[in-house]
Amino acid sequence: MSQTKPEQGLTNARILLDKRPVGWVDESCFLIEDCAEPSCGPQDVLVQAVWLSLDPYLRGRMNEGASYAPGFELGKPMVSRVVGRILQSKNPRFNEGDYVWGFLDWARRSVVSRGEGLHRIDPTLGRPSLAISALGMPGLTAWVGAIELGRPLPGDTVYISSAAGAVGQLAGQFAKRAGARVVGSAGSDEKVDFALAKCGFDAAFNYKTRNMDDALRELCPRGIDVYFDNVGGSTLEAALRHANVGARFPICGMISEYNAVDEPGIKGMQAMFAKRIVMTGLLVSDHLHKLPAYQARVAPWFRNGEMYFHEDIVQGLERAPPALIGMMKGEAIGKRLVQIVAE
Amino acid sequence: MSQTKPEQGLTNARILLDKRPVGWVDESCFLIEDCAEPSCGPQDVLVQAVWLSLDPYLRGRMNEGASYAPGFELGKPMVSRVVGRILQSKNPRFNEGDYVWGFLDWARRSVVSRGEGLHRIDPTLGRPSLAISALGMPGLTAWVGAIELGRPLPGDTVYISSAAGAVGQLAGQFAKRAGARVVGSAGSDEKVDFALAKCGFDAAFNYKTRNMDDALRELCPRGIDVYFDNVGGSTLEAALRHANVGARFPICGMISEYNAVDEPGIKGMQAMFAKRIVMTGLLVSDHLHKLPAYQARVAPWFRNGEMYFHEDIVQGLERAPPALIGMMKGEAIGKRLVQIVAE
C-alpha cells in the first residue's frame, strides 16, 4: 500500500488497519505510517493526542461487516477514545491548551473538522485521562451494570468476572458501596491480589488455577444475586449454575468469545426460567446522557481517595498494537491506556 | 412393586412414576394401579377428578434431584393440576358439587386433607376446565410473558415459538390486542394453519420444513422486538440473530432441551449486549397473586368470543401417560387435557 512509504517532510504518525484478523489479532493486522502533518481549516481544531484508550470492543470493530458499532475500514486508521490537548483552534468553542476527548484516529496529531465530536474535559473533575477511564465510558459501564441493572441489595452477593479489568475494578467497588458482598475472578494471581488489596473485593479467585464451581461454592456460599458478565463462555455458564432465584445478569461483554472462530454456545440456559434470571445486555453508548450526572456523583470518590482506579500505561503510539493484543490476552491490570506524549 | 397387584374390592385407579426417564419419556416410566377408594376424615374433602392438565414442566419433575419444582418420588403418584368436583365434603369451605382445582395425584378420586391447596372455581368465569388452562397458569404465563415482560408496543413485531401450544396460542392473541404484528412458528402445517386461522397470527411458519432464517427474514421484515421463547435451542439462536436493538425475550420454557441428554448450548449470545436484549426468565408460580385480576380481565374476552382457546382433549386417566409423551413430541394442538369423567 502506498501508505507504507514514508515520504520526506512528514512528521506525524498514524496506525492503520492493514488486515482483518481471523481469530486472534496479531501485529500483521496493523501498519504504522508516517503521514503529513494535518493542517487546520476554518472552524477546525488541531489536537495533540495524549492518552489513547484500548478496549475489548475494538476487536469487534476489526471484523468485516457491521456489529453494534460500524467496522473499521481496511487501509484506514484505527479509531478509539483519545484524550488530547488542543494545539491550535480556529473554533471559538475550544481554546489552545484545553483538554478534550473524542473518538479520534490512532495518530499523534489529528485535525477535527469543526471540532465535531470533541468534548471539553472539566479540569476540576480529576486528571485528564480519567475522562476516558474511570469518569468515562468504562466507569459508566461499571456503574450502569453493577448498580442500575444489577440492583444489588445490602447483603447480596455480586460476582464479577474480569475483576481486575478496566470495568471490573470499578464494578466491584460500586457494588461494595451498595452494601453487597463482592466476589471476583481473574486470570492471574497478581490480578486476584489486586482485586483484593486495591479494590476491596471480599473474595477473588484465579479461574485459570481453580475449578470454577468449587471456587463459587466456597466464595459465594449464599449463591450469586448479581453476575456482572465481562467474559461470557464457561464463566457465564458457571454463574448460571450458582445463581439464586431472581438473579440479575448485566451482560457487558463476552471477551472470551471475541477471538473465537467457532464459539461453543452457552449451556445451562434453562436456569433462565428455573431461576427467573434477568439478563440484560449493556452497551454504554445507550447511556451517554447519564455521563455528566455520573461524573458529578463519582468524581469526589476518586478525589477523596474513597475509590481506587488503576491505569496500566503503555508508552508510545507505536506500541498501541501490541498493547491491544496483550490486553485481549489478559496481560493488563486495570484500564489500559497508551500515552502518546507527556501531559 | 406391591402396588402392581390389583386387590379385590379396589375401585379407584392412579398412575405412579415407576422409572425415571433418561432422554425421552416412554410408557415404561409409568405404572397404573388399582388402589383403595380413599376415605374422608374430619375436615377432609373427596374430589372426583374431571380434567387433568398435561404440561411440559412435568418432564423436569420426573428427573432425579431438585429443579425449580421438587421432583416426583419414584413409586408415588404423578401430580399435576386437576379440575375436580367435590363428591363429599367434611370441610365447611367446600360443598358437594363445587368445582375446584389444585395440584392432585393422577387418580380418579383423591381425598384432600382439610381441603388444603384446593381452589374453588368461580362458575361465572367460564367452563371449569378453563381454571387450569386459559384462565389458569398457562393463560397467566402467556399474559405475563407476552404483555408484562414482552411490553409490545403497537407496531412491534412479536415472534412466538410453539405458537399453537397451550401458552403460545394465547400469547399471540394477547400481543395482537396490544397492537403488535404477531408471527409464530410451530412444528406442523396443521399447527401453522391453526395459529393463522384460529388465533389470528399475522404470519406463521413450519420450522420443520422451512429454514428459520429465511422465514424470519421474510415474515419479520422489520426484525423481532419481542421473542416469546417456549423452546430454546436453535429457535432461540435464530431469534437472537433477527432481534432488534432493545428486544425483550421472555423465557418461558425450553422444551427442545427437556429431553436432551447432551444439550448443545446457545450460540450467538453476543447479541445480548450488541443488541441490548433483555432476557427474563418466567415461572408463573411467582405471579399467582395476579391470577384473580388476570381472570377478571380476560374471562370476558373468552365469554364474548373475542379470544379463542383450543383444548386438545384425551379421554381417560389411563391415557394420561401416552398423552404426555405425545405432547412432549409435539402432537397436541392447543392445551392438552385429559378428561377423567364427564363434567
What report would you give on this structure?
- The structure is a homodimer of 343-residue chains.
- Chain A is α/β, with parallel strands linked by helices.
- The first copy, chain A, folds into two domains: 2-133 and 311-339, Medium-chain alcohol dehydrogenases, catalytic domain (Quinone Oxidoreductase, Chain A, domain 1); 137-285, NAD(P)-binding Rossmann-like Domain (Rossmann fold, 3-Layer(aba) Sandwich).
- Chain A is 25% helix and 25% strand.
- Chain A is built from ten helices and 15 strands.
- Chain A has helices at 57-61, 137-149, 168-177, 189-197, 212-219, 233-242, 255-258, 271-274, 291-303, 320-328; strands at residues 12-17, 30-35, 45-53, 79-89, 99-105, 109-112, 119-120, 157-160, 181-186, 203-206, 224-228, 243-251, 278-281, 311-315, 335-339.
- In chain A, strands 3, 4, 5, 6, 7, 14 and 15 form a seven-stranded mixed sheet that branches. A six-stranded parallel sheet of chain A has the order 10-9-8-11-12-13.
- In chain A, helix 2 packs across helix 3 (168-177).
- Chain A is globular.
- The two termini of chain A are 34 Å apart.
- The interface between A and B is medium-sized, with 33 and 32 residues.
